[in-house]
Amino acid sequence: MAADADVDEEGHDLQDEQKRLALRQRRREQVEYLKLHRAKLEKVAQRCVNRVLLQLPPDPFEALLFQLSAHVKASGISLDEFRVLQGQDHIIVEVGADARSAQLLAHRIFLPYKLAKGLSEEEDPEAQAATAVMILQELLGSLLLGVNVLDFQEIHQRLADAMGAEELQALRAALVGELLEAAGRLMDCTSGEAMRAGIVEFGGVQEEEEEECVAPAISCQKDLEVWQNLWPQLCFPVRQGSTAKRRLFVGLSLWASTLPEAKDLIGSEFHLEHIDEAAEEARLAALAELNLEEIDQDELPEPEPHEYCPPLNSLELTCRLGHALGDKAGAGSLDDFATSIAELRQTIDAVLPLYVQNEKKLAELQSEDYQAQKKAAAAARFKEAQHDSDDESVSEDSEKEPIVLLQEEQQQSSVYFALHADADAAFEDGCYTFNETQMKQAQLLEYYEKLCKDEPLLRCIIAPLAQNDPQLQAGLQALRAKLPSSVSLVDDFCLSEPKVEEESCDEGEPAPVRRGGIGRLLDLRLTSLGLATQRIQFLKAEHGHHNLATAELGRDSVLDFGTQEEMMPVLGSLMDFALSTPDHCRRLLLPGQDCWGPTHNDSLQPLSDRMRSMLLTAYRAKKSANKRKKNKDLNKMQFCEGLRRLGYGYTDDYAELIFDFLDQSGNGSISPSELQMLELVDGAGSLEDLDRLRMWLCDWKARRAKAAAERAEKEAEAAAGGHEEEALLTARAAEAEAQKKRSPLAELWQYMDRDGSGEASFSEFRRALRKARHPAGLNPNKGPALELFMCLDIQVDGSIVEGEFYCFSILSAYFQLQRVERVRTFLEDRFGTLKAAFKFMDADRSGSLTTQEWMDFMMGPQGYADEEDVKVCFFFIDKDFSGQLTSKEFEFLGNFDGRDFVDDVKKLRDYLVDKYENLEDAYDAFEQKMPPPDMGGTDLKDIPEKRRKRREGRGLSGQDFVNACRMCGFKGRFDPRLLFNFLDASHVGHITRNEFVQLGKLGAVEALQMSSDQMRKGISTLKAFIFQEAQLEEPEEPQADDSWKWAGVHKALRDVTEDDLELMDGP
After folding, report:
1. Which of 36, 253, 616, 783 lies 20 to 30 Å from 987, alpha-carbon distance?
2. 848 φ, ψ to 5°?
3. Burial class, 673, CB count within 10 angstroms (exposed 0-12 / middle 13-18 / buried 19+)
4. 3-class SS at 519?
5. pTM, to two decimals
6. How far apart are alpha carbons 926 and 968 in whole angstroms?
7. What distance in Å separates the CA atoms of residue 901 and residue 982, rounded to the nearest whole number?
8. What is the pLDDT of residues 367-377, one digit of tens each?
9. Those residues with Cβ within 8 angstroms of residue 76's Cβ, 6 or more apart along the chain or in another chain
C-alpha cells in the first residue's frame, strides 16, 4: 500500500513539473513574439499618427484610436497547422494560429478516445488509438490553414466535408466547440463573444444594425435590465405522446427558482445565491419598512442593479424545481391534448397556489378592460377634483391600485406549458389525425385556439402544422393571428441554407417576409458553427435588409435535446450560439426524466458556468468599457454639443439649463420620454398659480380636519363610558389641536418626501398632489403639475429640496401682497377713500366689521370678482387677530405700500441676523423667549433642558412673534403683527421654523422671475427649432401629428455625437 502511495505521489509530482515546464515554454514564446514584433508595432503606431496629422480631424485622439483599431481586428488572425498527439487517456489536438506572421499555440484540445472510434476498425485499444491519431492528423493537419478564426462559415464547411460521416458527428461537434474556445482566446474574449463577433463581421452587419442581428451586449450593470427576461428557459417533459417528438412540457424560466413555493418543493438543498448578498439584504429590509397597503406603485424605490440578476445558482434550482413538478404531475400519456393539459393544470394549482394567484392578478391588471376602467376612474376623479368637491366619502384606499413588485413581474409566466404537437406524424391525405379524430387545417387551428383560450398557461406550441401541408405558410400566419401574442409558435423546420428569390432582393426592394412571428426549432446536428453559418447566410441573402432576415429566422428559438440527446455533451457551444442571437426567448427541451433528474444536472453545467460568468462580469462593471457602445440616452455634453451641431442657435444660452431641468431621474442623462416633457409646458407657472395651490391646500387641510373630527366623534360614541371614553376624547382633542397648528405645506412635504431624502423629484411631487386629490395631480396631462414644479425648482436642477419647497410660503406671501393692493385699489376706485368705504360698509355704526360682514359686502353688492383676494386682505390687516376690522386698521390699508412693506421685512431679517448671527438661532430664541445676548440674554445652551424641551417645537403664535420682536428691540415702520401675517401665508395662526427662516429667502421671487423668464425663452426657442428648422428623419409610417419629432431629435442628437469619444464619456 505504501509503495502504491509513493508511486501516485511521484506521478502527481511529474504532472506538476510538466505543467510548469509548459507554462515556462508558453511565456518564452510570448516574449519572443513581442520581441519579434516590437519594431513592427512601433512602425504601425507611427503610420497611424502620420495619417491623423495629415487628416487634421476635430478630435485627433479619437481618430488615432480608430486608426489603431483597424490593426487589431480579427482579419490578421487565422488558423494554422494542427498537431494531433496520442495521450494516455485522450487524443491531444494542438491548435496552431498565425497572428500577423507569428505562429502561436492557440489552444489544446483533449478528446476522449471513444469519440474517435469511427476512425478506426482496429480491435486492440492501443492500435485503435494510434490509428485514430494518425487518421485525425491527416484530416486536420492543414484542413483550416489560413482560415480566419471568425470565418465560421468556412470552418463549418471544411469540417463538414472532411468529417461528414454520421459516426463522426459527435467528434465533429466536440471539435467545433473547442475551436470556438480557441477563437475566444485568440480574440481575448469569451467563446460567446467570439460567436457574436463572427456573426457581425461575416454577416456584413453594421454597428447600428447589431440590435436586429445579434443579442444585446451584456458588459455592464445597465445591460442586466435588458437581459433579465432573455435567459434560456428549461422545458421538462411530463407527458409522452404516441410519437417520440410529441410531448407536453412544463416550462420554467430562471425566475421560477425565486417563487415562494420553490423552497418547499426543492427541500433542504434550496438556497438562493444572490449576486450581491448585502444589497439583497438591504432591499428586503427596505421593503419590510414599507406599508404596501398605503403606498402607490410609483412610491416604490427604484430597482437596484442586482435585482435584475437571477440567482447565480438559478439553473440548478430550476432543474430541481422541474424535477419536483414532474414527480407531482406523475406518469401519464398524451393521447388527448386538452385532458393532459387540464391534469397538469390541476397539479400546478395544487403545488403553486401563490404563483397561480399572482398570474391571475397580473393578467387582470394588464387586460384591456381593466385599463379602460382605470382610465375612466382617473377621469372621474379629475372631474370631481375640478369641482372642488368636499365629499370625502371616497377614501384613498378605494382608489389605490394594486402594487406590483419587480420580482412579481419577473416571476410572471415563469411556469407555463409547452406542447410539441409533432403535426408531421399526424398529417396524411390532407387531414390531421389526433387521438383518432380527423381534422382539416381550419378545424385544427380552431382547436389550438380553444386550447390556448381554455388554458392561459399554455404559452408555446411547437410543430403545430405539418411540413408537407400545402397550406403550411398560410396556416401558420392564420394561427399566429388567432392566438394571443403571449403564445409562441415554433415551426418544426429549419432551412440548412436560405432560399431567397433573386427578384425579391433587387436594390431598394425589401425581401418578402414569409414567416414573421414564427419561431424556429434549431437543427442541433448542424453544431453551433453550422447554425451560425445559417444565420450569416440569411443576413447576406437579404442584401442589407437584416431586419427581414431576423424576422425570417424568428425571435423564438427552441433547442430539442429530447430527440437529439447525443448533442447534450456540446450544449456549451450550442448555447454560445443561442445567446448570440437576437431572440426574445430561448427554450431548451430537455430529455426524458431519467436525464434531467437531480443526479443528471452536470450536463447543464456548461450553461450554468457561462451564465455565472456573464452575470458577474456585467455586475462588476458599472459602465460599459466600450465607449462606442450606443447609449439610448444623452448625457449633458452630447445634448449641448448635439444641439450646436444640428444648428440650434441658442446652445450657449439655454442648453445646459434645459438639460438640468429635463434630467428628472438625476442620472446625468435624458431619455426620449424625458425630452418630450417639453411638449407639455411653455415654462414655469406664475406666483398666482402657486398661491392658488396654497388656497387649495388650506381647503384640503380644513376638509381633512373636519373628516377627522367626525371620525373622532363616531369613535367616541362607540367607545365604552368612563375613563376610556374620557381618555379617548382627550387624545383626540390634543391631536386636533396639533393638526390645527400644523401648516398644510408641512403635510404636503411629508407626502412628497416619503423616503426621507430631503428632496423630491417631479414624479414624487405629482404623486403627492395625486394623493392629496389635487386637480393637477389627477389630471392625465402632466403639464399643470409640471408648471407648478418648475416654480419651486428654483435651482432648475430637476428636483426640489426641502429649503426650496418652503420658499412656497414666501412666494405665496409675496403674491398675497398683490391681492391686498388689488382690494385697496378696487375700494378707492369705488368710494374715493378707504374712510368713506368703511363708513359705507359699517351700516350699524358699530365701528368694526366682522369677517362675515366684510365678505357679504365685497362679494354681494360690490360684486368683487376674486373671493380669495377679499379673504387675504381681511386676514392681513386684522392686526390684533380678533376676527374684526376696526376703522384704524382700515385706514392702514389706505396707506399700505407693498414695496415699503417688503423693505420692512428685509429690515427685520437683517436685524435678527445681526442680533442672533443667523435666523435658526433667532427662531430658537423667539421660541424660548430669550432676548439677544447683548440685551441680557443667555446662551441657548445654558437653558435648562427641561425648560427647553417644554417649549421646543411648539412654533410661534401671532402674540409670541409680537412679544419676541419687542423683546429683541426691533422697531420697524409696520406693526410686527402684520409681519407675522405675511409669514403665516397658510393662515393657520401659527408659524413653524421652516416658515420663519423664509425671511432669508426674500430674494426667491427675483430668482424665480429670472429662471422662469430664461426657461420660457429656452423652451420656446428649442420648440421653434425642433418643429420648424431641424432636419429630422421621418418615420416610415404616416404620423397623426408632429409629436414624433421629439423622439426624432433625440435620435438625431445621438447620431451626430456617437463617434465623439470625449462626448460619450460625459463631463
Report:
1. 783
2. -155, 160
3. exposed
4. strand
5. 0.73
6. 9
7. 10
8. 877 777 777 77
9. 99, 100
